[in-house]
Please model this.
Amino acid sequence: MANPDPHSFFDDAQPRTTRIHLSLTADFAARRLTGNVALHLSPGEGPLDLDTKGLDIHAASGPDGAAIPWSLGDETPILGRRLRVELPAGCPSVRIEYATTPEALGLQWLTPSQTEGKRHPFLFSQFQSIHARTMIPLQDSPKARITYHADITVPEPLAVVMSAGPSGVVQGSERGYRTFSFEMPQPIPPYLLALAIGEIESRDLSPRSRVWAEPGTVEAAAWEFAEIEGMIRTAESLFGPYEWDRYDMLVLPPSFPYGGMENPRMTFLTPTLLAGDRSLVDVVANELAHSWTGNLVTNADMDHFWLNEGWTVWAERRIQEALHGPDKSVLDWALGQTALDLELARFGPESPLTKLRTDLAGVDPDDAFSSIPYEKGSRFLTLIERAVGRPRFDAFVRDYIARFRFTSITSEEFLAFVEDKLPGVAASVGARGWLEEPGIPANAPVFHSAALESLTALAGRWPEESARPQPDVAASWSPLELLVYLQHLPRETDRDGCEWLDANLHLTDRGNCEILVEWLTIAAGSDYDPVFPRIRQFLTRVGRMKYLRPLYGALGRHRRTRALAHEVFAAASEGYHVLSRRVVESVMAKYPID
Ligand code: BES
Model:
């Protein structure tokens, strides 16, 4: 197979990049990174095909400085442009001089006004799934694992973090500039390369963990994530030793489009996790769990994405269960079920995007992104866990990680390993159907608890007067219980119901954004105007896609809320990440035109 990955020009018959050496300077005025990358290669000669998207390529040369011929292929909409370098015989590395362009999808350049401190610009990367090629010309496939060294030069007083170990800071050759160096000794898929530049500081949380954030946010972040060491130890007790040396975190400005991104040694997090009561650390548990599932054992390409995310949701919920007991994890599974049901309704149960093993040739992974690989995948694994019993499954998990660590695998390799270690089980649970058929099979595991039954029963009786929870009972609910309750309420209710909910459950002032967004979604769907200012304020500040999709969706229900959506989007969209902007545009395209 020459091109095993449908989303890359990577050709596995050609030499492979084993290590890269990156040397770039950040120009915030021009929104460009300029410099070079040296790709160190396995032995071979002839054509070497690299992925690029929106890069300005200037020159290519060998280690002796001699020019190497190169050519760019035609632009293709999803993959970008193939850069073909003609390697002379015995050439161990190629150095490419280049610059990024301001439109690079994997980089978001923020103006000072888009940061907390408002004084300095900020840059962050987000490469999963196929955006590393917008910052670096390379073999951008998870199969092409690399180690890296990077020297990043930035204006003072900005600091740099990467998904790597820091290896020094020196004054740059130009006055007022500093060069931050990094070393990543472990081979990672290119989408895990990550960079952020800004006015950031750190606080130590444990001997192997610290949190980075803007100065105005760092204390709150240190408090929110103070219990991280206990979580790392719990994860180690379940999945084996933590292999990445440090587990640091970076809290980004609010336009960060995801909740979290598992960049090794430096998880990237949205500031919407800073609830003030540690109630949203499940996202950190998820990103931490990726240190085993996803980062050690990686999907071969996006057709096997469930191997990253399904495994990680399963692992996250095992961490939560170990820390907080089974009742808490049942509620997490219930939240997941709601997300799953919404996605099945969005795609339709027969959609090929609801298969675990997908066929995304010609499909942009950003357009295919959904909760299906997360929630269907984790249910499939729980089914196997229940079929063989926990002790056997836990041993299997450790074997799986030990066998495939630092490799990138397919669903077929996974299945073969299941058959080897747990003979007959794949057939008995209908594994082929789970992987290859759309929708959710009838033998999907069910998750029960008394608390879940009573919350959903109560919400199901809304709007009966007698079904309104007693305020003292509601006050005793955990944030997770309240969220499950809200998710099971109708999406539209009358004004009196909205007033009651807000007055008694104190929703508009919540610091927990999951609860806040669930409420604002109901309120928007109910055309409840007292919360319009809060919706406007939230959507202007936050660019997390998980929140934009339901909120803008709910605003589509009424004439007044549609007007609000258009007004807010016009003002806010410039601050959104390109991917967030696209999601909102696709949601608003479904609105009737008034
Ligand atoms: N790896 C994902 C984020 C991602 C996936 C980015 C695909 C780009 C392409 C990350 O682990 C994730 O899913 N984060 C979730 C939270 C988690 C608790 C499910 C998020 O961002 O909300």
About this structure: The pocket of BES is lined by residues 128-129, 258-262, 283, 286-287, 290, 369, 374, 546 (CB under 6 Å).
